[in-house]
Design goal:
The structure holds two protein chains of two kinds.
Chain A (H helix, E strand, L loop, with lengths): L26 H29 L12 H33 L6 H23 L13 H23 L8 H21 L7 H36 L6 H14 L15 H13 L1 H15 L10 H23 L2 H7 L4 H29 L7 H33 L6 H7 L1 H29 L14
Helix pairs in contact in A: 1-2, 1-3, 1-15, 2-3, 2-4, 2-6, 2-12, 3-4, 4-5, 5-6, 5-7, 6-9, 6-10, 6-12, 7-9, 9-10, 10-12, 10-13, 12-13, 12-15, 13-15
Chain B lengths: L8 H20 L1 H5 L8 E2 L8 E2 L5 H12 L14 H6 L41 H9 L1 H4 L9 H4 L2 H13 L15
Antiparallel strand pairs in B: 1-2
Helix pairs in contact in B: 3-8
Classes of the chains: A mainly alpha, B mainly alpha.
Chain lengths: ~475, ~190
């Protein structure tokens, strides 16, 4: 091991490369990323379909497997596990060996993990369309697939920890902590939400379910997403991270605070008031890890903001950071009882959730793909202009989606709180909002198509991408 | 203390799991031990303490209807909780009578729970007994025939299947009925 001296100040994601960049085969990363981007596209079609059903409720209405209640879980699970988590795992397989200065512990185990993951996603498509739904949000998949997910996660975690165990540098860069945290916490969070939950009923079961749902975002997608941001912001901007110490504060406060907040999904509902209060207090404390992390990223960019003009990965990354800041400001605010009484259960909530999963974490993953995929295939990106288009389509479509649902949700909440207004009138009032949401969805989907096309043209070696990249990965 | 975790993956792993488990255990394992109403079925025979009644387990037919409710994803758009908000008790109410708020002891036999997070359609926690079977049949065939402006999808494969339809109605009529909250007991069948 090198570098006995531990750093607390500015730090770069990797020291002198112990292994030459060309020594990384990246086969696992490639498999994960290509299939993830494929699911991003396919599930995007499902997303537009369910958005259209809000506008034309009869659409495909007599075909049971294509009804709203079957497609919605496929949209959610497909985006979370088929696209985002698979992309996160693929990028993890890319950056961990590079941060450790070694090759991945086992490329064969990694390929087997990617293959198993694809079997799980295809199994999910079949079972959800058939209506084999466990009835618990984010945990819809049947038990056999849950067991396969656990197996895949053990294979993934073992490979990553074994690679970190053979690293050449003593001090671990912050991305490695977040990845290790993700692997460990996901084990507990997933087992709680998919296995322990089956032994409980009623409110007790709901409490376990919300602990899982909340931490699927907070302790799975957040830490692995931040691992990507901590790696790709300094890398794609070629600037050192502002502060190592600040990143430690952000990490350990996240580790402690996040898990307490599950009950905020049942505010005003049939769950003990004292547990609601605990969830509220910890939800507000979430501002600490979020603002620490965001400050660190902004300070890293100091004097470098002009790079956003040309650098598409950095554009996605810093927009993702702003969305992360906003979504994590909304979260604590929703958990206040007075705000919750207006926005809870309304269309505001999908606006908020999409900003987290699409605006923040998917933007990080897309940036990672744009940065890493050309380097893995030793090519240049097919088209920077097309990448720029994908950014603006996802950005404008995303903003259209988020903002109209927030406005619509607040409006809906105020109407619900006036019992003189019949419920159906509050449905009819939202119809223009759902039309805008559908159109925004088409813009976002066009962004996904541009992203997919650009990646495929790059990896299949379309004209102009063959010359090897000068910069080392 | 935490600076050690910076260079040791093992120390890191232990600290990360311990930090997580403090909140993890205190918010999942402990609450049902402290609040016993989570696991005790509702029962009240004293009108001065609120609505009387008793929570009965689901019959086979009701459970079958519930399975259809889960299968079709009804719970993605319909919540089942009358919250501690005045507007909720009015909206879950019926013919001028406010509904009682939902309490944990009414859901002891629910698995999977159907509390829901999104209210695209109205809350169903007190829907039991409000509409008769004929209303539900027409509504499942095409919701817009009864509620103009509704965006609920049609469910012809439930309406046209007598076995599934009877089970579905049996389940819906059970919802919220543990508490006998209608002063005139004017429940539809």
């Amino acid at each position: 091991m090198q570098e006995k001296q531990l750093t607390t100040g500015a730090v770069s994601p990797s020291g002198a490369a112990a292994v030459s960049p060309s020594a990384h085969a990246d086969t696992t990363a490639k498999w994960f990323l290509i299939s993830a981007i494929g699911y991003f596209f396919i599930v995007g079609i499902i997303a537009i379909t369910i958005a259209a059903k809000f506008v034309w409720p009869e659409l495909l209405g007599t075909v049971a497997p294509l009804s709203y209640g079957r497609l919605r879980p496929l949209h959610v699970n497909g985006m979370l596990f088929g696209w985002l988590l698979a992309a996160d795992m693929g990028l993890t397989f890319y950056l961990v060996p590079r941060l450790c200065g070694v090759r991945i512990w086992s490329e064969k185990l990694g390929i087997a993990t990617a293959a198993l993951w694809n079997v799980i996603i295809l199994g999910a498509v079949v079972s959800l369309l058939a209506g084999w739904n466990q009835g618990l949000e984010y945990a819809e998949l049947p038990l056999a697939l849950d067991i396969a997910v656990v197996a895949a996660w053990i294979m993934f975690g073992f490979n990553i920890f074994a690679t970190i165990g053979t690293r050449r540098y003593a001090q671990m860069y912050v991305s490695l902590w977040y990845i290790m945290g993700t692997i460990l916490w996901t084990a507990f969070v997933y087992l709680t939400g998919n296995f322990a939950v089956l032994a409980a009923t009623g409110v007790n079961q709901a409490n376990l379910n919300w602990m899982y749902v909340h931490n699927a975002v907070g302790l799975i997608f957040t830490p692995v997403g931040l691992a990507l941001a901590y790696y790709f912001i300094p890398k794609s901007g070629n600037i050192p991270l502002f502060s190592h110490k600040l990143s430690m504060i952000g990490f350990w406060s996240l580790a402690f605070v996040y898990v307490w907040t599950g009950a905020h999904h049942m505010l005003h509902g049939p769950i003990s008031q004292w547990l609601q209060t605990i969830a509220i207090v910890f939800s507000v404390m979430l501002l600490i890890p979020v603002w620490t992390v965001v400050y660190n990223f902004f300070a890293t960019m100091k004097g470098q903001w002009q790079q956003l003009r040309e650098n598409v990965p950095l554009k996605f990354l810093m927009s993702g950071v702003v969305f992360y800041l906003l979504t994590c400001f909304q979260g604590p605010m929703h958990s206040l009882r007075s705000v919750n009484a207006i926005v809870s259960k309304t269309d505001w909530i999908p606006g908020h959730a999409h900003m987290a999963v699409l605006g923040a974490f998917s933007f990080f993953a897309v940036a990672g793909c744009y940065y890493a995929i050309p380097r893995m295939f030793n090519r240049t990106l097919y088209s920077d202009a097309l990448a720029n288009w994908s950014y603006w389509l996802l950005m404008i479509g995303g903003l259209g989606f988020f903002v109209t649902l927030w406005l619509g949700g607040v409006w809906q909440g105020w109407q619900w709180n006036n019992p003189a207004i019949p419920f159906i009138d509050t449905v009819v009032a939202l119809k223009p909002v759902w039309l805008v949401r559908f159109v925004s969805g088409i813009l976002m989907f066009a962004g996904i198509v541009a992203f997919l096309y650009n990646v495929l043209a790059t990896v299949t070696g379309a004209a102009g991408v063959e010359k090897p990249r000068a910069a080392a990965a | 203390m935490l600076s050690k975790t910076d260079a040791s993956a093992a120390a890191f792993a232990v600290a990360a799991v311990v930090f997580f488990l403090i909140g993890g255990l205190l918010t999942t394992v402990v609450p049902p031990l402290v609040d016993k109403t989570w696991g005790k079925p509702f029962e009240n025979s004293d009108p001065s303490k609120g609505p009387i009644g008793k929570l009965e387990p689901y019959t086979d037919l009701e459970r079958k209807g519930r399975d259809i409710y889960v299968r079709e994803g009804c719970w993605y758009c319909h919540t089942q909780q009358t919250r501690t908000l005045l507007a909720d008790t009015k909206r879950s109410g019926w013919r001028g009578v406010d509904a009682p708020i939902s309490t944990p002891d009414e859901f002891v036999y629910d698995s999977p729970h159907m509390f829901g997070t999104k209210r695209t359609g109205p809350d169903l926690s007190r829907v039991g007994g409000k509409y008769d079977a004929q209303w539900h049949k027409t509504h499942f065939r095409n919701p817009r025939d009864l509620v103009p402006g509704s965006i609920m999808p049609p469910f012809p494969w439930i309406a046209e299947n007598p076995e599934e339809f009877d089970a579905m109605v049996a389940y819906l009529q059970k919802l919220g009925r543990a508490k006998d909250w209608r002063p005139d007991h004017d429940y539809e069948h």
